[in-house]
Amino acid sequence: MLRVGLLGAGRIGKIHGGNVAAHAGATLVAVADAVPAAAESLAAATGAKVASIDAIIADKAIDAVVICTPTDMHADQIEAAAKAGKAVFCEKPVDLSSDRIRACLAVVKAAGTPLMIGFNRRFDPNFATLQKRLAAGDAGNIEIVTVISRDPGPPPVDYVKRSGGLFRDMMIHDLDMARFLLGEEPVEVHAVGSSLVDPAIGQAGDVDTAAVMLKTASGKIAQISNSRRATYGYDQRIEVHGSKGMLRAGNVHETTVELATAGGFTAAPVQNFFLERYAAAYRAELDAFVTAVNKGTAPNPSGEDGLKAQMLADAATQSAQTGQTVKVG
Amino acid sequence: MLRVGLLGAGRIGKIHGGNVAAHAGATLVAVADAVPAAAESLAAATGAKVASIDAIIADKAIDAVVICTPTDMHADQIEAAAKAGKAVFCEKPVDLSSDRIRACLAVVKAAGTPLMIGFNRRFDPNFATLQKRLAAGDAGNIEIVTVISRDPGPPPVDYVKRSGGLFRDMMIHDLDMARFLLGEEPVEVHAVGSSLVDPAIGQAGDVDTAAVMLKTASGKIAQISNSRRATYGYDQRIEVHGSKGMLRAGNVHETTVELATAGGFTAAPVQNFFLERYAAAYRAELDAFVTAVNKGTAPNPSGEDGLKAQMLADAATQSAQTGQTVKVG
Amino acid sequence: MLRVGLLGAGRIGKIHGGNVAAHAGATLVAVADAVPAAAESLAAATGAKVASIDAIIADKAIDAVVICTPTDMHADQIEAAAKAGKAVFCEKPVDLSSDRIRACLAVVKAAGTPLMIGFNRRFDPNFATLQKRLAAGDAGNIEIVTVISRDPGPPPVDYVKRSGGLFRDMMIHDLDMARFLLGEEPVEVHAVGSSLVDPAIGQAGDVDTAAVMLKTASGKIAQISNSRRATYGYDQRIEVHGSKGMLRAGNVHETTVELATAGGFTAAPVQNFFLERYAAAYRAELDAFVTAVNKGTAPNPSGEDGLKAQMLADAATQSAQTGQTVKVG
Amino acid sequence: MLRVGLLGAGRIGKIHGGNVAAHAGATLVAVADAVPAAAESLAAATGAKVASIDAIIADKAIDAVVICTPTDMHADQIEAAAKAGKAVFCEKPVDLSSDRIRACLAVVKAAGTPLMIGFNRRFDPNFATLQKRLAAGDAGNIEIVTVISRDPGPPPVDYVKRSGGLFRDMMIHDLDMARFLLGEEPVEVHAVGSSLVDPAIGQAGDVDTAAVMLKTASGKIAQISNSRRATYGYDQRIEVHGSKGMLRAGNVHETTVELATAGGFTAAPVQNFFLERYAAAYRAELDAFVTAVNKGTAPNPSGEDGLKAQMLADAATQSAQTGQTVKVG
Known about the structure:
The structure is a homotetramer.
Chain A: E1 2-7, H1 11-22, E2 26-32, H2 36-46, E3 49-50, H3 53-58, E4 64-67, H4 71-83, E5 87-91, H5 98-111, E6 115-118, H6 125-135, E7 142-150, H7 157-162, H8 166-169, H9 171-182, E8 186-194, H10 199-203, E9 209-216, E10 221-227, E11 235-242, E12 246-249, E13 257-261, E14 264-267, H11 274-277, H12 279-295, H13 303-322, E15 326-327
């Protein structure tokens, strides 16, 4: 039974905290949040106690921490928890700076403690099934990966300013997905970006519409496109073309209801909210962490996966700004 | 090269006439129609001559006739053509009376000439493929056949009055399709009908909404439903459930274009007009006739198929009127 | 906060018990089961106590019971609980005999306590959305309802013998769905049935493949077909054709993954297990019960709905046996 | 009635020749081909005469020529026909060299004769409908265009060597489609390519797997990917994401037949052969040419469209070779 402390009881913290509490192999022992009411509310709902972050990290009766605090606290908390001998699950990203991530991973490595990074989409039942079938050879040799990812609506500009930019904040999920599917590291990144959705995002120096092309050493190609807007829901699609065929995983619609009239056949919009769309993925992700730590195996995706996705996001950011292809790896 | 005379140059006559003219194994020699302009226009377009029905039947240089005249002329013309030694393709039905059909088939049998009845849907590439796969065992033993067939809009009441009623005029296609798919004769027919679309149809003693249940001797079941109205196009679907799986053939949409907005994902309506929906079926049907006659094999569906579908339509009509199940065969 | 006792902790009892325990407006107080270990296991998982059925019914601190015992105990337990002033949620059916149901409903009526019958499919998000849109007029006037329902595989013959037959055991769900969608009572039932899946079912006097046609007083038509087998999963579809268009709700596939090869485009099978397929429906159903009782409104579907579905199932059974149409209502 | 001469009676020449002959506003007068039997066969089938290319161009009774000869003859023949006052429909491309195209267009401009380039996909009913709806604003402002185009199998290496490379031979269709949909000229091209399908293609200096990213002055983005192989048919999809929604046009499957078994739901492969997939497009394209010339309006797509697509293909070729983004326009 893994005894878990939760750092951060905001929107995503509540999801992970609830999943820990409901897991047969874990107990949610303590919850910390800068907003006392948030910690208290989640603690009450899950039977955990409220504690400070420092107290949780210092508590020898706690085996693992789940970090859902703001991004700029992640690396310090990972290091502190690792030094305290705790297993760590940390929401992506470890940090907005690849250098800081590298330093952090070095500390974790020295501590010899497990670290898992929260790329939830790898655990979506659709995408996970696709990846397993791909790895089993159902599509043959991988040739072209296509990822289309569009948010229902743009975040507030204040959030955008602190986010590290679209490539690090949003596309990092798709860059990780591309790595997950390609099974080989990209060595070249070319990116373009525009501000077509909200001029304020452009004025803040960021883009809201973007595309990336990746190439691996053996010549596999990935194409990704992102928009901060999709009127028809949270658009999340992947497709892999290979020598034997094509594997793809489509969107999840709100219902299976369809209306046919003279105007055509209208199916439901796709699920709109990421917490609904990826509810099963968050459960499976947390289960993967708990199971790995309980079994003593290395959790996956690792800190290294977090670093590599961040390096691709850095490269994409640079490419979009300079118009030049950026080599990585 | 089969030399063909066409009796009737109306809407469906033009289709068959054009298909004869374009067929590599056939020549359209002559066209007859009660409306001279109709015959002349089609003759001009196809390089045929205009002739009277009697002259075509008497013409020893004509090998086969394609009958597209009004229903009440079919049986007489089939008999005359058969006696003249000609192969006959006749639009369904042979007659609205099963007794008249039986008498006509006896004449054809005595003449020993080929007769094919125009159940065009058997030649639709989708439905024909489904039937072939069914016969090949892809779905295992057939258990339940479901046919859904809805016209875009009701015919004029004047037409309804002369039509023999929905079961003989419209559902006869689906009854033939059920026979085609079941591979075994229905022995029981139960039907219900209502007038929900156009009250004038009900006042004329007919129905515009109907359903039928068929059962074969071995217990296979077919369900059919018909409506004289479908706002979203000409709805034509079949589905066969068997011991190994389900085979189905869906509708043909006008285009593959889809629009996704906050209101959902809207695909195009289905093709609205039967001559468009079944254009390929009419070509394949005529080709089957020409090929069979040229090869000296029996064309299919036969006059017997026309009779059996008519007997099912009679039984359905009677069942809907009496509320009783009707035995056939 | 509704204090609930659970009678029966088998497969479906565990689902309802868990949903009660997780409901913000209800507490699972006690669990009873003839198998002590079953009651103890569910009690431990939910924080409830174990008690006997009699004790639960006698317990004045319990407001409501959820009945998940074998069918032949339902009516007695409903009556006892109603007389004890408790609200009752009972799995379908109340009893295999319509007369027994009528007597039971009279007792409940005299007691003036709420009774809800567990027709879970009404609460499936897809079907519930379809019904709401239908009621809102999206498809216009209802003309033809089509329900296709196929189980993944046949139950054991021992179960079949005690089940009341396919029409009462399986099709009752679809008959209730037809009533739910038609918005008008069927007045005529015609049914056919065969044993095509498992000869032992036929030898036991039941059918495993069946179809029904219903007609209402105003002429609306419903067609239902059932099979005890579907190789491709638990097939659950409804379609309503109306004057303005068609509304349908399709199957729920295991994933959205699709593989395209020379053999075609293969999507995942549909969800195979009813507890998975209807997990959300069971939650919503229990919520509807708790909410209605807490608010003092009449829960829905009512005991009367249970009776009417049973009468249709009786009529279908009789029709399939006699070959005659049966009038109801 | 437009009197048309056909230059080249190969695979695509037969299609255009047949469409001219069947067109109510045109007559196929003469057919030329280096292989006499090819010209004779098509002439016999269409009622045209056989003539030499020079004779056709010199024939004052011929109003227009349709050029289906090998690419390296296109520019000379366009110039000769234009100088002879003839309207010209020419299969893409005008030439593999943009400079040669520019020179040719100057000659045509001086002659003042109509010139249309055969980008057939603009006339596909699905894609044409999508573009019309896009232009009508159904998707709002255009933000991201995605084009996926995969051939069923690679061409012979001998063809590849003379083809100008994948970007000029295959992707030029998609580059034209991107221009057609974007409604704005791309100003930046970035391309990557690999040889993953057939090593002999790589040894010949070409690629068989490629992707391109385009950006317009206002920031609209297009992504294209190509493969010379698709096991599941001729894959042709477009998708446009805009401020109000997404418009897409999917593949055309061979039939609507679907088989459901324990392995899932298998739909038919997509149409495999470009002449079948684009049969309707070729007819509509030829009709657009005949109609424009008969009406005296400018045919579309124009020689300028041919030049611009070629310039994008040149830029993509250069980008894939250098790894640098290439500016155009």
